[in-house]
Amino acid sequence: MLAMIEANLPALQVVLPLIAAPLCAMLGTGRRAWAFATLVSFVAFAIAISLFIATMGGTIISYEMGGWAPPIGIEYRVDTLNAFVLVIVSGMAALVLPYARRIVDYEIPAERQVLFYTAFLLCLTGLLGVTITGDAFNVFVFLEISSLSTYALIASGAWRNKRALTASYNYLIMGTIGATFFVIGIGMLYMITGTLNMADLGEKIAAHGDSRTLRTGFVFILIGIGLKLAMFPLHLWLPNAYTFAPSAVTAFVAATATKVAVYVLLRFMFTIFGFDYAFQAATLENVVLPLAIVAMFAASLVAIFQDDLKRMLAYSSIAQIGYILLGLAFLTHTGLTASIVHLFNHAVTKGALFMVAGCFIYATGSSSITSLRGIGRDMPWTTAAFVISGFSLIGLPLTVGFISKWYLVQAAIELGWWPVALLIMGSSLLAIVYIWRVVEQAYLQPAPEGAVRREAPLSMLVPTWILVGLSVWFGVSATMTVGAASRAATSLISSSQIMWQ
Amino acid sequence: MSELVLDLEFIVGHYNYWMFVILMMTGLYVTVSRGNLVKKIVGLNIFQTSVFMLYISMGKIIGGTAPILIDDPDAVYSNPLPHVLILTAIVVGIATTALGLALVVRIRETYGTIEEDELLVLEHEMEFAEAVQGGGSR
Amino acid sequence: MTDTTALLLALGLPAAATFLIAALGSRPNLRDGVSVTTSVATFAVVLYLLNGFLDGARPSVTLFEVLPGLVLNFAIEPLGMLFATVASGLWIVTAVYSIGYMRGAGEKKQTRFYICFAIAISAALGIAFSGNLFTLFIFYEVLTISTYPLVAHKETPEARRGARIYLGILMTTSILFLLVAVIWTWNIAGTMDFRAGGILEGRIDPVYVPLLLALFAFGIGKAALMPFHRWLPAAMVAPTPVSALLHAVAVVKAGVFTMLKVGTYIFGVGFLSRTGASEWLVWLAAASILIASIIALTKDDLKERLAYSTVSQLSYITLGMALANQMGVVGGAMHIVMHAMGKITLFMCAGAIYVAAHKTKVSELDGLGRKMPFTFIAFTLASLSIIGLPPFGGAWSKWYLMLSAAEAKHLVVIGVLMVSSLLNVAYLLPVAARAFFVPPRGGMAHSLGAAAAPQGGLAEAPAFCVIPICVTAIGCIILFFSVGGLYEFLLHIPILPESTQ
Questions:
Q1: C-alpha neighbours within 13 Å on the C-beta side of residue A411
Q2: Residues of chain B contacting residue A448, judged by C-beta atoms under 8 Å apart
Q3: What's the angle, vertex CA A323, arms to CA A321 and CA A328, rounded to 5?
Q4: C356-376 pLDDT, tens per residue?
Q5: Residue C325's domain spans which residues?
Q6: Does the beta-carbon distance from A409 to C149 stay under 8 Å?
Q7: CA-to-CA distance for A19 and A15, rounded, in angstroms?
Q8: Residues with Cβ within 8 Å of residue A146, at least 6 apart in sequence
């Protein structure tokens, strides 16, 4: 029995939340649905951890869906990289769901909560599916499962602010355009190779060599995923979506959805198109790199002038995605390591920050920064969590943000790209400005008169502080995360280099 | 020499791909340019449909039969895989359309309009009201 | 008690005291008692370490490893020992003084004040005992952040503004320049340990040495090298004990200490003088000395005048490092002690004047010397020490710096030092002279407070304020006579690589 479960872990990882979602819809009350969804997320997390441990030594788990061998059947393929991402996604779900109960009670009417948790599980299914599958078309399907449920989740913020509806609609339009571009790209690849299995695609493309169709496919895929991961300037959907979504959704989506999209990008760039694909290298250096740097600055600058905490953090996310893309665009081992480790680090940091924003909303009913005056005294724990995560966003030592910056700058220095190293540091200075605006309001301004604000409930504080704790723990002892990221980078590079040579 | 001449055979021979391109551009244009939220979704549908066409075109083999078992072992048949994929894509497309239209209904209920420019005006007013409110309590 | 435990204890005591102080927030007497007791205990532990150090003990302890090779390590060497002794010793004085000042001036939120103060001292000791550049950088940032609330303590708009400048400049320089320099060093040398004779020689292209040095020199913003000195005058909005200990001793000395440490243990004095890489820094430091002194002349606000005087005096130490010979390092290190003793006295006097007479401007001090004789006599003694006249400590450090300049054949620098002494006379002595010799302006009509006090009677600040002032003023004289031991001690600073010694 145990052996059977173990053998089917990759499938269970996705199938479990998938089956749980409709079951959850039948549970009747929001409280029961919440308990069930939380349980499912814990099990999913446990599965992800065991997959992570199993792949730690470099083994690749290949699972044949329905017993059909790849490349014809759909293959689930777990290596160091996607096991790492699986842990991030399921771990965030396992933290956000316990957090969600109180804030969802606050933001969403009781009769809608069952459907909310159902959509949440579907979203989890989609994200896990995208990460685990080894089939290019399957990626599209799961991407759409996660996106469609995310649109619904964001729209459920309409109970608090009706602008969530238009935010969700705009995201739907842009997300669908992105997904369709992505599917066109996959179609192009299929035309060339006649296969959809990623590993097989990689080999066949390497054998096929460069061609106009391949380039077109590459560009379609890049733009398609770029829309999903809010690559500057394709980020327009993100600020409103993050601002008006229910707080729990923002925390989960901000920490996972864009990360998974980055994972897809990494997978396509290095497993399918190959590390040495010259056209890709040129695109990365001439298009993605400058855009990443512009994102780091433009988005941070815009963040400084926001009055809404969630919107400020949303713009900061766009800037942080810039860092991830920058590391990728370096096309070196250190750069890739920086990118992958920042996937984790930013998920932890931004998850914590959005959870803090949720706590503030729970206590004050507003997410505007001016409403936080003097809140450091009324909500000491929440505000302290904000400060520490803020440090991480800035990249101060002993937080995870520092580790990411360390590797990014190192990668830039290795290449001798001095200006880029200084630009990376320069943009973190902008983070100081927007984080400090909040810190100043929270600690150095008198509280508005007559304001009654109580510390957030424990069920919200504990998950927040777990994330804060993680961002300190992995800032102090980064050997594990960096080790995993470095192994993942090695496997991405080595497999593809052999193919193209 | 032949490269300079307009390759009519190429153009006509790939007419289904041209249709794909035209439909795709039309759809994208409609999605971007229309202010009416329902029309945007119509545009999105056209856009998605063009992709179905692309996939079906590449699976089709001229002179091939349907991919079913027949007695002739040398029968040429169309590649069924893209067609199957497109079934999935159609399902995704329908789900997207349904969700999009549902959102439009909700937008119409709460805002009273589904014209993008009017929505923008309304949202600006909301933003302004929030700012004034925030300033009042300051 | 082994030396290693003592080392950790010295760092841990102030940090642990923060919890006690926080817990005792509602009982001011007990809280202030804890603060003073901790400072005494910390100093005792540091003295114990000093004792062991003189017997040849060189304890080193590694706490944890952030990344392979990147460790949090503490080790003791002469410079650090010196800085730790100065900082912890003067903490006692300031702790006593703060009680008088904070209560006398009726400041709010005193618990937060004492907590941040203790953290800042802990960070300063962390900087003193850091065994590698990475550890130093961490505590450098901790020091910046923990002193921010102290600077902004008054929570008035101008306090917030001053604190913003303070944080902005210190963070900007440390992240933009220092961190890049640290990562670069790590990239070149593969280590960040402080080693006798430096770690860079033979590993870096000499062309880049001035550039790297510039990144360090400007990155260490706490050394207030022009043009990054603006934070120091801006920080003067802080309550005076903060200005006294932090902005005359702990923070600014942490800056120049880092400068000396980088000069001797990262670059290596010999390497610097052979490559001539620090030539430009000599001139910049000299310019900084003169310009800051001239600005100090124009300032009417007493604390601001002292701040610019500090900027000028700090450049002496930077100059000592840039001259790149043993005498320079000895003179610079000695100036850390001498200037600390003198400047803390001056600042505490300024604070005492504020508490007793509510005067902050030099032009308002007329005739105050009669009412506050102890304060102003101490002020005079400390001024003379800063100017560098015998029999005060300041004379010696200038002497050794001049020797160093002569050895480096920088005769102009000797001239600069002499002119600077004249400028010191011009901006410091008038303060005391006004107080003693100019009769009070406007007589009784000018100030109700003066009218209320009996004519010619004493109106000193609380004893908690005056006693520390007298102690440090006498300290300036003692230092002059006990310089022999100090000089011997400073000769322990290893200048040459271990292999050649």
A1: 25
A2: 137
A3: 95
A4: 888 888 888 888 888 888 888
A5: 278-444+457-492
A6: no
A7: 6
A8: A122, A123, A125, A126, A127, A129, A130, A257, A260
- Tokens (6 digits) for B16: 């289904």
Q: How far apart are CA C70 and CA C53, in angstroms?
A: 26
- Chain C window 131-160: which residues touch A at a Cβ cutoff of 8 Å? 134, 137-138, 141, 145, 149, 152, 155, 159-160
**pLDDT bracket for residue B134 (50, 70, 90):** low
Residue C139 located in a structural domain? no
Q: Which positions in chain A touch B137 (Cβ < 8 Å)?
A: 370-371, 448
Residue A16 and residue A40 in contact, taking contact as beta carbons nearer than 8 Å = yes
Smallest Cα distance from A90 to chain B, Å: 24
Taking alpha carbons only, the member of B48, B40, B86, B79 closest to residue A141 is B86
Rounded to two decimals, the pTM is 0.91
What's the burial of A345, exposed, middle or buried (CB within 10 Å: 0-12/13-18/19+)? Answer: buried
Residues in chain C where the model's pLDDT stays below 50: 443-455, 501
Report the mean per-residue pLDDT for chain A. 89
Instruction: Specify if B3 maps to a domain.
Output: no
Interface A:B, Cβ pairs < 8 A: 85
User: How far does the CA of residue A303 sit from the closest CA of chain C (Å)?
Assistant: 17
Domains in chain B, number: 1
Instruction: Identify whether B47 is part of a domain.
Output: yes
- 3-class secondary structure, A75: strand
Per-domain residue ranges of chain A: 275-501
**Residue in B48, B81, B126 nearest the CB of A180:** B48
Query: B52: buried, middle or exposed (CB in 10 Å: 19+, 13-18, 0-12)?
Result: buried
Using an 8 Å Cβ cutoff, are A385 and A394 in contact?
A: no
CATH number at residue B75: 1.10.287.3510
Counted domains in chain C: 1
Q: Is residue C309 part of a domain?
A: yes
The angle, 0 to 180 degrees and rounded to 10, between the axes of the packed helices C373-387 and C326-357 is 160
C-alpha–C-alpha distance, residues A315 and C196, integer Å? 47
Cα–Cα distances in Å, from C145 out to A165, B22, C117, C167, C337? 41, 59, 11, 8, 25
Q: Do chains B and C touch (3 or more CB pairs under 8 A)?
A: no
Range of the domain at B110: 8-136
A54 CA to chain C: closest CA distance, Å?
23
Residue B112 lies in a domain: yes
Sign of CA dihedral B80, B81, B82, B84: positive
Please report whether residue C380 resides in a domain: yes
3-state DSSP of C279-329: HHHHHHHHHHHHHHHHHHHHCCEHHHHHHHHHHHHHHHHHHHHHHCCHHHH
Could you tell me if C407 lies within 8 Å of chain A, comparing CB atoms?
no
Residue with tokens 């902050």: C360
